[in-house]
Amino acid sequence: MRACLIALLALGYTLTEAKAETVAPPDSGYASDAWLESATSWSDEQQRREAEIAAYLNDQDPGRASQYGFAPGHTPALAWNWFDRHPVGFSGVPLVLLQTLLSLDPATETDPDLLPLARIWRQASPVPGESGVFTLDHLGSSPHPADYDNGTAKPAQDRRFSLPNGFVFDPTVQPEEVRRINAKLFVMRQLDLTTLLRSSLRKRIYEDDIDYQTEPEKYQTAPNHDAVFFACSACHTGRVVVGGEIDNSGNMVQQGQVRFLHGMPNTEIEAQHYSELLLATGLALVESGFSMDSQTLPDPDDIEANRDVVKALLVRMIDRARKDDTVGTIYGPSPEEIRRAKLQTYWVAKDFATHVANLIGTAVKTQYIYHQVGKTYAYDANNPQKVTPDQKVPDMMNNRPGQMDAFGVAAGLVALHTKRPDNTYVRFMQDDFPDNPLFTGIATLPGFETPADADAAGERIFANVESWAPSVPAPIDIKSLNWSVHRVHANWDGNQGAAARALASGTSATGNPLETNVRIHEPLNPFINNLPPPPYPFEIDKEKARRGMEVYERENCASCHKPHNDKIYPVAELGVDENRSRVTSEVARFGLAGLVMEACRVFMRKYPGNDWCLPRDGDGNVITDTAAAYDDYFRDIPGRVRAGSNGYKADMLHGIWARAPYLHNGSVPTLMHLMCPKTRPAKFTRGNIYYDQAMVGFEWNIVPQQRYSPHDTMSIKGYDTAEFGRSNGGHDFAANLCPDTSGLDPVADRDEIARRVLASEIGDLLEYLKTF
């Protein structure tokens, strides 16, 4: 245990001794309430909580695991490993190919065939990084926590992990050995891909016949190469700078230490921008037959790959494994890592046409989901539902650090899966849930009024996408996960049951039930149910916090922010932006639920007797009513909209200090702005991990002129609350306690605003909220 605790120092913790005992949130109130009644200093309380988190992440005791709700054989330590180091799906890009793309630099690339790819993957940063002006900052993912020394990022050559944090592959994959590997790699440089490319495209754009009834072992299985995809930690590990300081011009006064906040939202990542990069890459590999302007799904026989670009990419990938000065950068410099790099490169090169076809196929599907569906309807610049005709619409795939439009965009997946050649997706739903409205009919939806069999249902889902696709943009903030046991519903709008959240998220992220890593999701619900929130890493005025506790109780904040609150608060009551609360249609709801259920059924066929993935009731029993099970996967959002009750849930505020910006759409930068609506800025920045201790939230206006440390990443972008779906109105429940700030500008007069608010009861309340 002590060795593990020492290792946690690299993750940003300051540890005393961790005690091997269970951790759990209080039945009511917050963990800090007992501290406020004690004589313990905040520094000691911080260390106690940090040690508690470290002990939980390393806990391998089966007895405590059982108390937490883990299945036999699962523990918090195992779940943490799967959360941090295993992909949620198996559909990723081969590591050796991705590393080749990431290595291309527009400033130094001399091959004209590779220069377009270089410009996709490395982009100019306003603050040059260790590799120069062109960096990978735009991915919004830092080095892995283990690659920091006392809170400072190590140089690339000294890191243990060669990929950004959260970009992982299944570590259990072992490549087949090859004799005379160097000679065979050289031969691979001469590979003729012409015939192979054409035959591979059809297979990878539209799947071959699928038979998981008789061959379940073929699905939800890691490929024989290291396929890079997101781990849970990619989106659910935040960062904060502690001990650092910048002046009003953004110049560094003192370098701080970066700390990682496990379970908290990554406020920097742009996961859907990564999809945009894959889309651009696939397009760069195409000569003709498919483009960004395609209005229909292309016929694979019409797509011609750009053979010059493909061949140049193949040769560069192979040469990186052959050359001594680059092979050690693929996995690492050890003999074992170099051997793995060579073997992986050989096997990926041997099947390179398939991997190129995969990239092009991914681009085709992404272009359909985001452009033919998303941009045509929700993200249309002329969207008729905008507040005013000249109102701007947010970018569909970019400029949203810490955000995504997961369920709005995922609706396009439903249409795509109806195009499986053998219609297995729609047939599965009909067999699994015959009374599904997709087959019995939806009276309120044009094109779906009458009953239909599986073939007709699939055809009308695809043909009538305009009638059921999301009609408004709804990018929202990534949720925190800590102490999720207090939540009845998942997601901001409570559109899923709490037990459905893990697998539903993994299936949507992967985009394919047959490639979802269902196995690793099993221990994730008990893991996040019991994962403690990180403590506020700065000083706290205990007396002020005690007064704030009295304000919190007097104002009855806990009437909403209480454990197991199952109420959905209507938009009309909250006054907040409504877009997210109404993006899911009947077709999207049942279609997405069908994808999650299919992932579960395939898993159950592959692992007979293990039904963990089926929806469960509050007592942990499997929901046997199929309609109720589908409802647990995706709630009746359309029914709420029809009833005028669409809205959002109110969670407990565990670790609320680290969950900035605030509201579901991240339109309010700090807790002070949330409490006092008149102080909210119309524009601010997101992605900064310096912390505004006065206003309680991440720095929202001053942009650093230097990196957090020389080898770290930094991605900061603007946010405009005037854009459609980004309104910062609502949640004004404590506004009556705010001081008079009339005549003050939220940006120019921020110091005066902070002074006045901190001197009020709101200042006391903010101090109390820091302790959660």
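Next protein, fold it too.
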Amino acid sequence: MVSQESLKHALPPRVHWPIVGREEDAALLLQRLSSGSGGVVVMGSPGIGKSTVAAAALAQIRDNNQSNQHVLLLPTPQEQAGGLSYVEQWLGVTTAVAATIDAVADQILARLLPDPAVPDPVPVLILALDDLHLVDNFSAGVLARLVTDGRIQLVGTSREEPGLPPALNSLWRGGRIDRVDLVPLSYESIRLILRAALPGPASNDMAYRLWQATAGNPLHVRELLYSIVEAGDVSYAEHAWVWTAPLRTNRRLVDLLASDITTLSGAERDVVDLVSLAESVPLSLLAPTATDAVLSSLVDRGLIVLATGHGEPTVRIGHPLYAETLRSLLYPRRKRELFGLLPEPSPEQHSPQELCRWVDWALECGLMPSPQVLLAAGTVRERFSQPERAAALAALALNHEQLPPPERVTALLLSARANRDAGRSESAEADLVLLRTLAEQGTALPDAVTVASARIHADLCQRHFGDLDGALAILAQAAQEVEPGGVAATELAIEQLGLLGFGGRHAEVLAGYGPQLAAANHPANVSLAPSYIYALAQAGRPLEALELAETNIKLVGGEHADFPLLRARLMAARFWSAVWAGRPDLAVTLPEYVEDGIQRHDSALYQAGAGYVYLLFGVWEQAVADLRGALSRMGLLAPTGLEAMVWSGLAQAHAMRGERAEALHACQQFEELLPAMDRSVEVDSRYRVLLAKLALGLEGLEQGISGYIALAQSQGLLLGVLLGRHLQVVTAAPGLRGSLLAALAESAEQVQGQLSAALLAHGQALNDGDAGAVSAAAAGLAQVGIWLPAPAKVLALTPRQQEIAAMVAAGMTSKSIGEKLNISVRTVDTHLGRIFARAGVNTRAQLTQVLTATFE
């Protein structure tokens, strides 16, 4: 893998920067030209990719040898042209003062176009011109006249402000030319850019931060990526590239934004300086500096945004990259001067971002906020998945002299949670010891504090040390210390049931869920739903689990602020319910919900989910990239218990690609992490490891499948029994498959959804021995997200050949395989010919028979 230092040289040069997220825009431009439009103008803000889109479309025209179009690139207009009109710059001659638009246009037509007597076809001339907004009115009139002649098309770019010159704007309004309006890149496009630009996978968190910092501006994305790489802020965290430092500016970013910042007037600079430091400022505090003209100018440049919702209007910075650049240009004295203009924020009246920014600003000025404000900001940092910064703020609060006992308790709890989330288990335990010491010294701890500290302690015991029984004992002890039958006792009972689900004791969760709901109507009941949904789905009722997940997702609201990952956990439970119901199409869709800003975005969980989506659809290379990205992010934080699940998916993906060493390593990592894994999806994870071992042809697979079935039976997990019995049929000798079908059929009847029917159909086809039926049944398995491997050990296939062989066995055509792997049909057929040669067959049906036989 490329080192951090050599990564600087591995990034593509600017001229070869990947064009991602603009493919549809370029295609639309070409479609408009081919449909007879007089031209197309690409509109957008600076750096949004206007020239890139136009150049990509024009390159396709030039590369099309059969096209009747000829492209003429015109020079870019100059802002300071010494009084010359653009046509004078272009032609290199001075036009007469009395020259008319028609006369100049006719002169240009005579120069550029052939004699009208030339027989058809007459080439279509495309004039390509950047920065149409800089063209003077006379020259714009000439360009408009050229377009209306009918023999010339115009392809240009223009900023939204000041917009097109009047003559060209009239052409657009009259329908003679079209425009393509560009919007910022999506988060998904940033992910694809990183995939194309970096020599290896990147964490989703890195893509998300780039997207947030740049507001999707392609130029800013590119330059910020160059900047953080050159600063050494991007490192390879074992599995993928991660952005390891806070956003900070350097000379590159200052120069990039200089044209937007250095030309500001004094009044404009006062506004943006204050807003960049404060994140958001009430409009009333900016008066009288912020006149309407000043605000309008700054809004047009994209430097600020006016928010006029409920309450007093506020002003905030355009996007974080501007804010960080502006802050870097301010000297300490100026920061201190501006700081005095704003009062200390109130957590009840200011947004979380405003609160955190004010605290950062105070600390930069050498001022110490009150403990209450520090703790409020630390709680926000923790909610935003920034545990290191939360712990630092808690430490500052604890250092305050004469800190009252209630605030000290709050600070210790915050510090313990933050240290736990940052993976610093010893520091978290030390915080809990100090908390117990306070109680021993006479500080009365409310029941809510007892519950919170027990949660942290139990979480450390289970996730960090894999001791489920110890974690349950901690919760049981805490239950004896709180009021019997009270709210705290209810919360601890719910916590215990949830921990049982984490530990894979699903039967106890199924038995306890209903009585717990009946015992108390408490917001924490919803936090138990994910464990119950997992248990219900694996007990053979995935359709009921899916419905329950969608219902509970809609119930998440402000009263669940103490459970910031609740919606993410419910989304994950819904995903797996859909997978086990054989509905990957539902798994990849998201139900509607109301965003409240309280629930936390877990980038590692999201990227792991994306990797599993690729597994479901057989896109192994992308599955590997996303699963490795998820592991890299998980490696920077505290254990979540999900690491083993990710390794099992990696084992399957590597095995399906024929990457034997990587698959074996993933299987080993899965086994090592089993003691502390989140066993909510253990049955699925173990199944994928079995599929990997099947592909690798490892010894002891039959015993492994039998043990898997026994484990599932002991826990009442009918889904696991079904999956295991199907694997028994797959790996059995042809003569023995019939005796196993009855058990498979029995299991299929006990599990809801399309998955059970597809597994049974495939088992029956294998038993019948008809290659066509086997191929059709394998295609049915692929439709429900099950991909059986092509055993590379017997046929000695390359990774790419193994991918293609598995897809052929699933009934996919060469065209479908090419689209999935992003290769040509000819390349697919070339690989297929080599697979046929190694297998000694001539047809797809014969290959399916060989692949089936190799499992004996």
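About the second fold: The longest helix spans residues 447-464.
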